Predict the structure.
Amino acid sequence: MALTTDQKAFFQEYGYLPYTRVLSDEEVAALRQRSEDIAEGRTTHVPSRYIQLEAAFRADAAPRIDTVRKMTQLCYFDDLFQAAAKKPEIVDVIEDLLGPNIKLYTDQLMMKPRYNGTVTDWHQDSPAWPFFVPQDHVTCWVALDDATVENGCMTVIPGSHKWGPVTREYKQRFIDDPEIAKPTPVELKAGHCMFHHGLNFHRTGANPTPNRRRGLALHYLHAETKYLGIADEESRLRTECEMPRGKFRFMPIRGKEFPGRV
Ligand SMILES: O=C(O)CCC(=O)C(=O)O
């Protein structure tokens, strides 16, 4: 057990858990450098379809890293990011929350660039990925820079996971309902992380500050999860790391794999 009884009870009650340091300063520095190398195009091992720019950014924004909104599937293409996703300090907690058989679905390095970082609006993760059943992801969100209210740290609605999936058209009514808890910002120092349940509502604000706010979201599944596949070929290729149909396996992290499952 990595979590204390109180920490586990907190996660179950509120659907998120602010946690401690999981990356050393050296690991944080190496991941920052790697994120910069990929964003700047100094390395080409991450295909460009996985690098998404902010829709609009200051005309004088430079270097290019300050225009990148997010980079995904890094754990599948990059050794340093993969090593981070496999760190026992993180996976031990995931095991406490999801059980012993664990796979990685995907990762998103949310760059929230200085001056240009835009809002990621309220959402629940699991319903965004309806091709998995059952819908019970757990995400570890690791700060690669200090994440503060000013530069767009994670903000959660405690206990929101208990209400199940809420469709987009009812989202605002749900959030405004007096019975629903008030949004709570989770500020984190670089190298520290938080965990959140796949049905927890969360958002991040804009980043108008001169400081970068990179956060690595690692999305884990239990290995018994069924993958229903993705009909749209473009979306499938993005999810399945550009592999031919039927060839892709989600990344084993710990424990057993199951035939016909992720
Ligand atoms: O880091 C962000 O800006 C958003 C992260 C997020 O929405 C997530 O981890 O699911």
